[in-house]
User: Which sequence fits this backbone?
C-alpha cells in the first residue's frame, strides 16, 4: 500500500506527459489534413464541417460538462449566430474581423437576458425550456422571412475578408477554423483548471453545497450559459461565412439533438471527448447517409444504445478501459 | 365574432392538448421521466389512422386499434428500454427518450411518413353545428367531447380504482410506495402503456385536423411541454388548467398574429410566469 502511494506522483507525472504528447500528436495530425487531401477538395470541406461541429460540441460541453445544465436547444445559438453573421455580412461588411466580434457581442447580450430566466430553472425544466427556445428561434426565421429568406434559407452571403484579404481557399479556411478550435480548446482547458472552472464543477457536483460554501451559483451558471452560447454563435457565424448560406435546418431540434449526441458520444465533461465525438460523428454521418436513406433510424437507435450501455460516452468507456489495463499492468509489474 | 369562434376553437385545441399532456404528466409523476418520445407516439397514432384508412378499415376501428397497439408498444418499450435506466440520473432519461423519438420518427419516414396526409372525417361526423351565429364543424365538437370524456374517465379511474391508488402513491413518494409493497416495475409498465395509448388516441382523432406525417407530434409536444411547465411538472389539476390556457393562447395567437408568432408569444408568457411561479399554477409542481 505504502509502495503504491509513493509511486503515484511519478505515474501521474508520466501519465500527464503521455497525455500531453498524445494531444500534441493529435493536434499536428489534425493540422496536416489539407496537405494530403490536396487533390480531393471534398474531403477538406467535410473536415472543415467536422471542425465547426467540434467547436459547437465544445461549447455545449462548457455548459453541460461544467455546470451540469442540460441544454436541449443549443442549435438556437448556433443558428442565431449563423443568421446574424450572414445578415450582417450582406448588409454591412464582409470583413470577418468585424462580423464575428459583432455576432459574439450581440449573443452575449441576448443570451445574458434569456439566460437570466433560464438558469433559475434546474434539471428538467431547464432542458424543456431550452428546447422551447430552439423552437422559438426556428419560428423566428419564418416570422421574419422577409429578411431571412424563410424556408429557402439565407442565400448569397458574400465571401468574407480578413483585413481586406478574401478568404476563399479551402485550405486557408480549414486552418482558420482549426486554429479557432485549438484556441477554444486551450481556453476550455485553462478555464477547467482556473478557480472559475473549479466552481463550475462544484455546481455540477452539488449546487446546494456550492452555495453553502459561498459561491454565487446563479451568476456562475449564467456566466457558463453565456460563454457556451457565445462560442456556439461564433461557430454558427463561421459556418455561415464558410458555407455562404444559412438554412432554417440549423435551428431544428434535430440539430440540437445532434450536438447533444456529439457530447454524449464523446463523454460529457471531458472537453476533448465531445470534440472527437463531433469529428467522428460528422464524418460517419456523411458516409452512412450516402449509403442509406434511413439515417434517422440508425441515429436514434445508436443514441438509445449509447445511453444504455455507455453512459460516459465512448471516450469515457475507452478511458475506464485504459485505466483498467494500466492498473492491471502496474499491479503485475509491482 | 371572430373572438367567439376563436375561443371555441381554443377550447377544442385545449381538450386535445389536455388528453395528450395527461400522459406526459402521468409518466413523469410515476417514473420521473420527461418523455421526449411522447410526440412520436402521437405521430404513430396519426399514421396508424392513415394506415387503417388505406387498408380499408373504418375510422372507428383505427380509433380502437391504434391506442391498443401503441399502448402495447409502450409496455414493451418500458420493459425493454426504460427499465435499463431506472435508477440513472435524469439526464439519461431525457437523452434516451430523445433518441427513441428520433428512432420512431425515422421508422415512420420509411412507412409513408414523408408526405403530409389528411385523414378523412367519417361521414357520420361531417357537417356543421350552429351555436347561435357561431358555426363549428361537428367533428371538432366530437373531438372535444371525446377528449373531455376520456380525461374525466381517467381522473375517475385514478381516484377510485386500485391501480389509480398505486399510481397516486407512487406519484407522491415512489420510495414509500415501494415500501408499502407496490411493484414499481409492473406499475411503470402499465403507466407507460396508458400514457402511450393516450398519445396515440390524440394522434388518431387529431389526424383530420392536424394532418398526419412522421414528425406531426413535434409541435404538439412543444405545446404539451409548455402546458406541463405552466401547470407544474407532475401536477394533474395544474395540467388541466394549463392545457386550456395554452390552447386558447395558441389559437388566439394564430388567429391574430399567425402561427409562428403565437408560439413565440406563448414562450415569452411561460418564461415570464416562471420568474415568479416556478412551480406552476397551483404551486405543486416539482423542481428537482
Assistant:
Amino acid at each position: 500500500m505504502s509502495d503504491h502511494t509513493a509511486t503515484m506522483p511519478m505515474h501521474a507525472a508520466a501519465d500527464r506527459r503521455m497525455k500531453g504528447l498524445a494531444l500534441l500528436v493529435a493536434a499536428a495530425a489534425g493540422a496536416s489534413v489539407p496537405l494530403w487531401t490536396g487533390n480531393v477538395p471534398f474531403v477538406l470541406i467535410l473536415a472543415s464541417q467536422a471542425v465547426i461541429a467540434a467547436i459547437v460540441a465544445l461549447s455545449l460541453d462548457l455548459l453541460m460538462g461544467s455546470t451540469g445544465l442540460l441544454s436541449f436547444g443549443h442549435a438556437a445559438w448556433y443558428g442565431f449566430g449563423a443568421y446574424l453573421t450572414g445578415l450582417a455580412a450582406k448588409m454591412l461588411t464582409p470583413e470577418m474581423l468585424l462580423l464575428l466580434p459583432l455576432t459574439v457581442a450581440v449573443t452575449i447580450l441576448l443570451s445574458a437576458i434569456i439566460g437570466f430566466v433560464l438558469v433559475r430553472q434546474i434539471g428538467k425544466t431547464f432542458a424543456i425550456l431550452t428546447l422551447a427556445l430552439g423552437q422559438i428561434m426556428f419560428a423566428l426565421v419564418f416570422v421574419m422571412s422577409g429578411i431571412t429568406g424563410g424556408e429557402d434559407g439565407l442565400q448569397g452571403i458574400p465571401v468574407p475578408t480578413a483585413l481586406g484579404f478574401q478568404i476563399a481557399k479551402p485550405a486557408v479556411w480549414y486552418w482558420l477554423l482549426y486554429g479557432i478550435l485549438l484556441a477554444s480548446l486551450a481556453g476550455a482547458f485553462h478555464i477547467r483548471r482556473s478557480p472559475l472552472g473549479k466552481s463550475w464543477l462544484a455546481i455540477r457536483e452539488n449546487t446546494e453545497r456550492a452555495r453553502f460554501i459561498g459561491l454565487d451559483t446563479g451568476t456562475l451558471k449564467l456566466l457558463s450559459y453565456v460563454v457556451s452560447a457565445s462560442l456556439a454563435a461564433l461557430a454558427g457565424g463561421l459556418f455561415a461565412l464558410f458555407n455562404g448560406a444559412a438554412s432554417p435546418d440549423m435551428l431544428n431540434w434535430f440539430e440540437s439533438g445532434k450536438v447533444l449526441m456529439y457530447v454524449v458520444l464523446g463523454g460529457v465533461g471531458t472537453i476533448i471527448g465531445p470534440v472527437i465525438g463531433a469529428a467522428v460523428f460528422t464524418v460517419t454521418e456523411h458516409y452512412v447517409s450516402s449509403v442509406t436513406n434511413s439515417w434517422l433510424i440508425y441515429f436514434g437507435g445508436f443514441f438509445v444504445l449509447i445511453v444504455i450501455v455507455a453512459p460516459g460516452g465512448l471516450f469515457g468507456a475507452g478511458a475506464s478501459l485504459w485505466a483498467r489495463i494500466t492498473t492491471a499492468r502496474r499491479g503485475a509489474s509491482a | 365574432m371572430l373572438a367567439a369562434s376563436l375561443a371555441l376553437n381554443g377550447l377544442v385545441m385545449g381538450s386535445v392538448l389536455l388528453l395528450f399532456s395527461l400522459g406526459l404528466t402521468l409518466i413523469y409523476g410515476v417514473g420521473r421521466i420527461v418523455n421526449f418520445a411522447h410526440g412520436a407516439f402521437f405521430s404513430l397514432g396519426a399514421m396508424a389512422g392513415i394506415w387503417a384508412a388505406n387498408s380499408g378499415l373504418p375510422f372507428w376501428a383505427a380509433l380502437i386499434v391504434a391506442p391498443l397497439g401503441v399502448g402495447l408498444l409502450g409496455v414493451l418499450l418500458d420493459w425493454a428500454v426504460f427499465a435499463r435506466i431506472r435508477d440513472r440520473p435524469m439526464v439519461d432519461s431525457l437523452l434516451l427518450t430523445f433518441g427513441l423519438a428520433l428512432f420512431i420518427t425515422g421508422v415512420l419516414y420509411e412507412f409513408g411518413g414523408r408526405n403530409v396526409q389528411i385523414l378523412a372525417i367519417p361521414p357520420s361526423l361531417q357537417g356543421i353545428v350552429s351555436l347561435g351565429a357561431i358555426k363549428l364543424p361537428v367533428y371538432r365538437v366530437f373531438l372535444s367531447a371525446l377528449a373531455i370524456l376520456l380525461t374525466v374517465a381517467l381522473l375517475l379511474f385514478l381516484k377510485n380504482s386500485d391501480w389509480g391508488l398505486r399510481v397516486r402513491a407512487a406519484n407522491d413518494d415512489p420510495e414509500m410506495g415501494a415500501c408499502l409493497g407496490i411493484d414499481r416495475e409492473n406499475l411503470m409498465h402499465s403507466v407507460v402503456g396508458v400514457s402511450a395509448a393516450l398519445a396515440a388516441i390524440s394522434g388518431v382523432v387529431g389526424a383530420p385536423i392536424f394532418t398526419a406525417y412522421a414528425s406531426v407530434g413535434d409541435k404538439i409536444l412543444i405545446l404539451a411541454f409548455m402546458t406541463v411547465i405552466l401547470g407544474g411538472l407532475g401536477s394533474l389539476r395544474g395540467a388541466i388548467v394549463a392545457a386550456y390556457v395554452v390552447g386558447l393562447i395558441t389559437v388566439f395567437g394564430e388567429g391574430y398574429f399567425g402561427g409562428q408568432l403565437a408560439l413565440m408569444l406563448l414562450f415569452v408568457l411561460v418564461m415570464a410566469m416562471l420568474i415568479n411561479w416556478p412551480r406552476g399554477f397551483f404551486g405543486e409542481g416539482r423542481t428537482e
